[in-house]
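Blackboard transcription, Thursday session:
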Amino acid sequence: MALIEIENIEKHYGKNGTNVKAVSGISTEITFGEFIAVLGHSGSGKSTLLTMIGGLNHPTRGNIRVDDLDIYALNPEQRADFRKEYIGFVFQAFYLIPYLTVLENVLIPFAISDLSAAKRNSRAMQILEKVGMADKADRLPDELSGGEQERVAIARALVNEPPIILADEPTGNLDSVTSAGIMQLFADLHREGQTIIMVTHNQENLKYASRTISMKDGRIDQLN
Amino acid sequence: MKLYQISLSSIKRRKSRLLFLLIGLTIAISTVIILIQISDAMNKDIATKLDEFGANILVVPQRDELSLSYGGISLSGVSVETKPLTEAQLKKITHIKNYKNIAAIAPKLLETTRIKERNVLIAGIDFDSELKLKKWWKLSGKKPRLDSELVVGNEVAKKLNIISGDELNIKNMRMKVVGVLAETGSQDDEIIFADLKIVQNLFDRKEQLSLVEISALCYDCPIEEIVAQIGNQMPTAKVMAIRETIQSKMAAISQFENFSYGISLVMLLVGGLIVFTTFSASVNERKKEIGIFRSIGFRKKNILQIIITEAVIISLFAGILGYVSGLVLAKNIAGYLAVNSTSITVDINMLLSSLLLSIVLSGAASLYPAIKAANLDPTEAIRTL
Ligand SMILES: Nc1ncnc2c1ncn2[C@@H]1O[C@H](COP(=O)(O)OP(=O)(O)OP(=O)(O)O)[C@@H](O)[C@H]1O
Ligand SMILES: [Mg+2]
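(Written on the board underneath:)
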């Protein structure tokens, strides 16, 4: 059974005439444990697709079911709860909270859950260990390199074990060596059974993925 | 990691940005505390100084004729008192609503007598009440303790060559002068003072009074109100307010109080505005951050909580700082204004009020920006640049 069912979704931006069709009719199914790479030129609608899957961006048409749940039939607060349960976002611009330490950033998802403090901390340290950032747990984001910040962002996305990781060009700002390290991390997660959908510009990265979705002008170009 | 810890970290690591907010709020709270403390101290100060101002209400019998004296020159020796004032009437003062505002009641009976071939005014008074009312009285000699003891005014002593220890014959009663009043510059200099009961007996005017001097103090009600209350209890007497320094001083304090309320209101508005603009600016600044929280699954109310908690924590600091600095400054300013500042002390209720004020102020002022932040479109906030 599919984990994510995308049914003929469209997204139009803009009011009064300046209508941009960012996504114009996409249908696909993503099953548990897939590592999807979403490829496409700038402006082809990749980020729009990703945020719609993540319950952050209401489609103009069509619907998305995750785990048989029609996420845009939910009210906004229920959708927040859905994100908490199902989604870990990783963004290109790292997006760490500047005034929180590495450890605190990773602990953010637990601020709205009721896990005990001890469990939270051990889980966070465990995940920081995994991304190789445990020794820098007490640093602030601006004391880290780009690659290190990205690792922390991945750790934060993973910490409460969401079924789906959505990553938008996670290596977009990194040099090739650092990128390879991050991609290896995603490959490892994939091997452990993590479902990942990753937007990328870089053909190099496709080899880590189990499937590539190519996008052009808001549509799927071809299926591999 | 709990929501409030996010707020705490935000405050801890963005100190310089929040400093402005803290200072603004502190100044607002501090000003309010200063103004409240100073006007309170002024009120208490005037209460303790009350006695120095003497009486401010005069009760005399009703007369039918118009007054025949002007500027201290009396054209008629006798004026007929149609309804004499009595001690029984005076007792009714205890029934008035603002009795607690009455500091001293000094009843008097005035008569004329001949001493050493001259006419002299003799006043029967209650020495304790009189001394309470006239703190400026200086006796050389002592306060009369026996019924047969007298005090004489300075002019009387000079003109009649009387010194302490002399004996005088008044209405066939031998009385001893035990004290001479230092010059007061008032009519008191020309009067002989004896005990009220004795004078009433000697002149056969039992229970009767010529006039009563009263000192009353009320910050929140005009003296006319107390006058009216006494008038109601003593319908046959004439009750008058004496416009004295204390009156104008109380009016000045009441004006200062109004001014204080005005300034306090302005300061609180300014403080609220600072909180409002700081948090509005920080909402724009923190758009991304809010987007991240929302993408992680924070509900709107969680965002609201983070921002309001931040405002409340800062306002707690501002409340304490504002109270302490306000207290210290009020003490110094009171000294500068020569107002007795002993009443300006640490007061837990005042501290709690200033905390509450600060919290309510910054909570209210940060509410709108917080709601705005919570309602931000997360996609908009998160859009990859
Ligand atoms: N919030 C928005 N309002 C209006 N137009 C938008 C908005 N977000 C995206 N668009 C437009 O929709 C189209 C698709 O944008 P999207 O960000 O999904 O592309 P993308 O494939 O992620 O591009 P890139 O590789 O540059 O990140 C673009 O033309 C973009 O300008
Ligand atoms: Mg994009």
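Lecturer's comment: Chain B has a mean pLDDT of 85.
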